[in-house]
């Protein structure tokens, strides 16, 4: 980008998209995702191992819980997004913030229920697991879809959105780091694993609620819109058709199906990798501290990189780093130190993509409104999270099937085939998904910074014109 172009872009940004968030708002948004992760990551990190090694459920059956529940969650995200977009009674707390406040305690109680399965038969345990995890996912949608939909209402400034997305990712990874470091030591302190899992989850659930409430009191919706007229079936059809025509959104959804399934699958499998390949359960805590800690480096670098390069370029750059580290890890991560080194580099690359997702999906909101005339933050965000939930279904289902296929037996010495299957799940799957993401982003994602600015200028001019017409009509 030339100096003149950069100067023009800066002037444009300051004129039509001024900065509207404070450091307090950004920190509040970050703390909200610490809470989200305390309440959510327990399932992604430890629930599969709780099912297989504590409840003694067959791995393939345990994996189906994730498949069914996450597909259900994906549809719930779309339903919640549609409902939120079409709410009529919006109070002084705002359109999105109240959900963060009221959903926190039910979400915590349901999380505890997931790790407190009674001593039923296998069938009874499976029924409990299905029901509790599906209800948990529904309530999480009610909390998380509004939380993620807030960025377009907090600022229109593209750079500030990148900063908010980075703060959110920092909060997310702080929550993930603390959950990875602190959970298993608590479990190991208790007389039995069953008691340990329950007590650890209760502790993280309580702190998660506190973090969400802190977030509620420190973020605000700057750009508030009047409630929309009650949507008809025809309006909803138009909105869904507009989503399908939103090329940046569709592309972003597809690549998140790849990257997020890889990320979550790695989180689920690393517990098995440390126990059965490295024979070092404490390695999970080291991974949490060093490798997830590297994501903070990525979060700090993203705002600097996006000042020089398009977000699309930085996104692909992260995937290249990620894929390279995981390929090397498959061949060389034979001890705890090497595992931490290669996984840390992979998470650095992943941090670029994770930090930018929320900024990119906010850009898709404006693009969709410019393209179709329909603005729907909730539906855009829920469409995005729909694919992320599908990716979580893959991340929970695939390990269960592969572990069964390679002959995994809980709490026993594993065969060479089983160990190879665990290594492949840990490294090759995520490397392949990262490479696919680079290819798809390069060829299909159309929003460069220049193009986004053009879209936003035209959109704001259209809004001003519509406002003048409406005012004239009212006057007449």
From TrEMBL:
One GO BP annotation of this record: carbohydrate transport
GO molecular function: symporter activity
Listed name of the protein: MFS transporter
One GO cellular component term: plasma membrane
Keywords linked to the UniProt accession: Membrane, Sugar transport, Transmembrane, Transmembrane helix, Transport
TM region(s), chain numbering: 96-115, 127-149, 170-190, 196-219, 249-273, 285-306, 327-348, 390-408, 420-445
Record's keyword annotation contains Transmembrane helix: yes
PANTHER family referenced in this protein's UniProt entry, alphabetically: 2,3-DIHYDROXYPROPANE-1-SULFONATE EXPORTER-RELATED, MAJOR FACILITATOR SUPERFAMILY DOMAIN-CONTAINING PROTEIN
